């Protein structure tokens, strides 16, 4: 048994707020104290559950295309091999080994990739098998899936439900993800949708119908995580109205709206951005069926990668930098463009400020998660700095002096004095995301929880404190000390296996014969081969 | 016994609808496979009396050979790992791990086929799509410097020319097919329009097309030695602009002729530009069955798709410096591990000269010019026939390879794993 004694424990799920407690671990789980075993003296340290990133892009075809496309992104940030660990490339889109080690070294022990086209699920799992330390899972793109669009149009939501369940099982995925619902389908002929009631030409459905149907399907299947929505019109001035419409269209249905910062812009299309975070945050505060993650922008060079193909093209037009686009048959698309967020740029400053406004305006920290939509807003490596911005008002004000002054003055950031406590940070970085994902054994330190524990040296400089934890324990083993990986291990992959009526299989087979280029039989991911370490998370449906 | 929906890993088409018949310990039939696929299944599906390992041409045990291979690679100052285009991703992962541990160089066949497409990606990006999008949507197909009729025999029938798709209800009748090449190949017969270009003039023509797509004037005189007239080019540019969903398939006629990455860059730029008027995609016609897989494995493990050097303990990428022909021609590599490739037969003679001077460790499913001169040669099970694994189609769609015929030989993955373990013992970290 491993005993962690004398540490200040922050375990919000169990209501523990900085009290000195002994945390005990055996066989990879948190257990009751029996008073014997190896001891870590955590005097002067902070003990939290391992961090949980609920929305990032770390595996699969678009991430890998970005790696191959941007050798310059890796330069100057290489990770040499050690006697224990593999080497790798860094930058905004690190190689798989680097990704796992860096998450772990930062105290994060679980990460979910937010957008995998099911046709490439096998690829994502292969990368997961080379992503060390962390546990992981991915969301399956469904918002532009042609089988789904056809069946919504035909008024057969039960077929959509059965198909979605089949698809999650086939891909070994975790949740239903929508990206610009309807818009990516139209992008395949160069178009897009711009409002919730625009028709998806050729299919006779609207984004509103797609959103409502798949939100219902997520609930009916009892998925541990509700429908995960990247709204229409991401990144466009004036898009806040679409976001608000989406929230209203959900009409009480549970849903998670992701990288909400990118969807909170006022102003006229083509013009400068203005912050509409207060209006949207007020709506979210008043509607407990909705949760969000932020997608914070931080200044510097990064890589935009999105399932939102038309957005990728827009970013290419704006930046003039290299552009990759991949349209995936019958399912989805993706766009990749390098992007540099500049602190002296009006729009980028506004984006940075809007993200912070969201953190500071949502009353209930359980309903907002810390993300950068890695690597879109910034690398996950910037989480410690974001934590400092939230915990340290003076630092935040100092940073506000360095950005575009007119832009920041037009936001509400100056008026927001709120500072996050360690307890609240523990919520938005682990307890909350674990709860939103429906992972009952993650994000807390109660008896029976997975023994994923991060121990930080207390420090006034919160960026320093959260960047390099003293110890990181994963499944009960001390894997990281002072940022150094001590043992190379591999975590498990979470997926769901909701039940469905097998009658749907005949329809799916026919769809495959007509429109796919691979056989129906060759589509499902072979469990034992591709998920050697896995855990099925139960559905409540 | 018949096994259906078998994946053929011979070429980049990776057809997954093959019905294989296994009788008396051999493959007797491969239904649906093309002429190349049939030959692959039937020739690799035969019993063999080859030894599992050969040392200097003499039969050896697997243990002896693993030890000799590990010693040879460990003693080398600059070992090179090369090949990998015809094996599984699982074996490729082991190969990268081994190259890293050895502090050597690793390169794959990409550097001598579509490396220039990879470099165009790095300069320009890449508007692309999966082959099902071609089937469902594409009404204009252009093959440039590619002869699919002979190199990818089912490409036209299965993906790009004849199949009916969601928005292409009449199949062939709804498509216009163009073939651009330096000679009228068998593929020209399947095209609506064949444009014969002069060798080495692809860049000029692609650049002129960019100008025409952008509505700029072109001087006819400048096209004099390209093989095409302004009228032909204007017609092609108009077809490109007017199509609803166009696809350009690039072959080695572009990537390996004079200009190389400049040719591919011009093609990538043309396709990028076309997206301001219509929807257009490009797909490199990857040759070997899993050459796309090795780009991906190297991509996720090292951050770079080919030509990677580990001598500093971390990956460095530089085509021309760490690519196979260069590392060999300059006489730098002093031992080479070849997996599922035949560089002695396929590389330029100045690179092969170096191969004749240094120890070669080779893994292959059959005898080749490389295994014949190897210090240590392993006979391995064919991925997709006698070994399971993963393969990536030319459009990056991953498929699972079945094992349909038991083999007395270990897989590439297993042999590489054994060598890796032995190297770790010999070379304590």
Structure description:
The complex is a heterodimer of chains A (541) and B (429). With 541 residues, chain A is α/β, with parallel strands linked by helices. Chain A has a single domain, classed as TIM Barrel (Alpha-Beta Barrel), CATH 3.20.20. Helix content of chain A is 34%, strand content 24%. Chain A has 19 helices and 26 strands. In chain A, α13 crosses α14. Chain A is globular, with a radius of gyration of 22 Å. With 429 residues, chain B is an alpha/beta fold. Chain B folds into two domains: 2-113 and 289-426, Rossmann fold, CATH 3.40.50; 115-284, Dimethylsulfoxide Reductase, domain 2 (3-Layer(aba) Sandwich), CATH 3.40.228. Helices cover 37% and strands 21% of the residues of chain B. Chain B is built from 17 helices and 20 strands. Chain B has a nine-stranded mixed β-sheet with strand order 5-4-18-17-16-6-7-14-15. Chain B has a five-stranded parallel β-sheet with strand order 11-10-9-12-13. In chain B, strands 1-2-3 form a three-stranded antiparallel β-sheet. In chain B, β19 (389-392) and β20 (398-401) form a beta hairpin. The radius of gyration of chain B is 22 Å and the shape is globular. The mean pLDDT of chain B is 97. The chains are: A alpha/beta (541), B alpha/beta (429). At the A-B interface, α1, β7, β8, α4 and β18 of A face α3, α4, β8, α5 and α12 of B.
Q: Helix coverage percent of residues of chain B? A: 25-40%
Gross geometry of chain A? globular
Largest sheet of chain A: 9 strands, mixed
Alpha-carbon Rg of chain A, integer = 22 Å
Distance between the termini of chain B: 49 Å
Q: Helical segment tally of chain A? A: 19
The dominant shape of chain B is globular
What is the rounded distance between the termini of chain A? Answer: 37 Å
**Which value, in Å, is the CA radius of gyration of chain B?**
22 Å
Number of domains of chain A: 1
């Amino acid at each position: 048994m491993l005993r962690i004694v004398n540490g200040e424990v922050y375990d919000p799920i169990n209501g523990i707020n900085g009290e000195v407690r002994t945390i005990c671990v055996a066989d990879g789980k948190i257990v009751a104290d029996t008073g014997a075993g190896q001891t870590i003296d955590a005097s002067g340290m902070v003990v939290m559950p391992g961090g949980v990133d609920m929305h990032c892009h770390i595996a699969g075809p678009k991430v890998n295309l970005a790696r191959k496309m941007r050798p310059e992104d890796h330069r100057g940030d290489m990770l040499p091999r050690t006697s224990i660990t593999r080497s790798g490339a860094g930058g905004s889109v690190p190689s798989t080994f680097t990704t796992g080690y860096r998450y772990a070294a930062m105290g994060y022990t679980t990460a979910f990739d937010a957008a995998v086209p099911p046709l490439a699920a096998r690829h994502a799992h292969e990368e997961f098998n080379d992503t060390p330390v962390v546990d992981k899972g991915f969301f399956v793109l469904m918002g532009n899936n042609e089988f789904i669009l056809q069946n919504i149009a035909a008024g057969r939501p039960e077929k959509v439900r059965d198909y979605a369940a089949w698809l999650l099982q086939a891909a070994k995925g975790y949740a239903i993800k929508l990206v610009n619902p309807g818009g990516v389908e139209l992008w395949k002929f160069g178009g897009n949708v711009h409002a919730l009631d625009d028709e998806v030409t050729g299919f006779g459905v609207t984004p509103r119908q797609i959103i409502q149907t798949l939100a219902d399907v997520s609930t009916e299947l009892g998925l541990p995580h509700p429908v995960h929505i990247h709204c229409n019109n991401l990144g466009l001035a004036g898009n806040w109205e679409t976001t608000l419409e989406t929230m209203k269209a959900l009409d009480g249905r549970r849903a998670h709206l992701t990288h909400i910062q990118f969807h909170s812009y006022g102003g006229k299309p083509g013009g400068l951005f203005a912050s509409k975070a207060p209006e949207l945050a007020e709506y979210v505060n008043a509607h407990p069926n909705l949760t969000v993650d932020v997608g914070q922008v931080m200044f510097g060079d990064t890589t935009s990668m999105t399932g939102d193909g038309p957005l990728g093209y827009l970013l290419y037009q704006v930046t003039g930098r290299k552009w990759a686009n991949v349209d995936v048959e019958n399912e989805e698309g993706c766009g990749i463009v390098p992007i540099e967020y500049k602190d002296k740029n009006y729009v980028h400053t506004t984006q940075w400020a809007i993200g912070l406004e969201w953190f500071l305006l949502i009353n209930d920290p359980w309903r907002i998660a810390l993300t950068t939509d890695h690597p879109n807003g910034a690398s996950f490596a910037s989480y410690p700095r974001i934590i400092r911005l939230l915990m340290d008002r003076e630092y935040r004000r100092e940073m506000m002096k360095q950005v575009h002054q007119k832009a920041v003055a037009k936001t509400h950031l100056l008026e927001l004095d709120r500072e996050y406590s360690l307890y609240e940070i523990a919520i938005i970085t682990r307890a909350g995301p674990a709860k939103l994902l429906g992972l009952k054994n993650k994000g807390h330190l109660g008896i029976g929880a997975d023994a994923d524990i991060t121990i930080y040296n207390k420090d006034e400089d919160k960026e320093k404190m959260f960047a390099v934890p003293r110890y990181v324990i994963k499944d009960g083993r001390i894997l990281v000390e002072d940022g150094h990986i001590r043992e190379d291990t591999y975590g498990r992959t979470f997926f769901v296996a909701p039940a469905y009526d097998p009658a749907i299989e005949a329809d799916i087979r026919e769809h495959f014969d007509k429109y796919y280029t691979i056989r129906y039989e060759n589509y499902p991911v072979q469990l034992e081969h591709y998920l050697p370490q896995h855990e099925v998370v139960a559905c409540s449906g | 016994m018949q096994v259906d929906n078998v994946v053929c890993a011979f070429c980049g088409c990776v057809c997954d609808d093959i019905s294989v018949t296994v009788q008396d310990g051999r493959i007797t039939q491969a239904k649906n496979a093309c002429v190349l696929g049939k030959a692959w299944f039937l020739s690799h599906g035969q019993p063999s009396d080859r030894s599992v390992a050969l040392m200097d041409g003499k039969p050896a045990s697997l243990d002896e050979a693993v030890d000799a291979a590990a010693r040879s690679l460990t003693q080398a100052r600059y070992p090179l790992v090369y090949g990998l285009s015809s094996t599984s991703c699982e074996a490729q992962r082991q190969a990268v791990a081994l190259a890293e541990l050895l502090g050597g160089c690793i390169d794959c066949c990409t550097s001598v086929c579509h490396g220039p497409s990879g470099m165009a990606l790095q300069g320009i990006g890449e508007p692309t799509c999966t082959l099902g999008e071609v089937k469902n949507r594409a009404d204009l197909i252009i093959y440039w410097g590619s002869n699919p009729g002979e190199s990818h025999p089912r490409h036209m029938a299965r993906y790009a020319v004849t199949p009916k798709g969601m928005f292409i209800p009449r199949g062939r009748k709804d498509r216009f097919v163009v073939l651009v090449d330096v000679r009228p190949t068998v593929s020209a017969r399947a095209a609506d329009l064949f444009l014969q270009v002069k060798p080495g003039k692809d860049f000029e023509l692609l650049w002129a097309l960019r100008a025409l797509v952008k509505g700029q004037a072109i001087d006819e005189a400048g096209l004099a030695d390209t093989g095409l007239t302004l009228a032909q080019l204007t017609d092609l540019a108009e077809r490109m602009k007017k199509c609803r969903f166009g696809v350009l398939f690039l072959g080695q006629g572009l990537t390996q002729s004079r200009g190389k990455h400049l040719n591919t860059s011009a093609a990538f730029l043309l396709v990028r530009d076309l997206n301001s008027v219509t929807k257009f995609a490009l797909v490199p016609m990857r040759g070997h069955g899993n050459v796309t897989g090795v780009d991906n494995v190297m991509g996720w493990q090292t951050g770079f798709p080919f030509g990677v050097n580990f001598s500093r303990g971390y990956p460095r990428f530089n085509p021309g410096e760490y690519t196979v022909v260069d590392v060999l021609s300059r006489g730098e590599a002093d031992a080479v591990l070849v997996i599922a490739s035949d560089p002695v037969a396929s590389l330029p003679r100045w690179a092969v000269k170096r191969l004749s001077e240094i120890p070669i460790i080779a893994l292959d499913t059959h005898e080749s010019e490389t295994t014949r001169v190897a210090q240590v040669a392993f006979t391995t099970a064919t991925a997709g026939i006698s070994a399971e694994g993963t393969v990536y189609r030319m459009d990056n769609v991953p498929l699972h390879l079945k094992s349909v015929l038991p083999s007395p030989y270990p897989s590439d993955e297993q042999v590489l794993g054994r060598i890796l373990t032995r190297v770790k013992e010999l070379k304590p970290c």
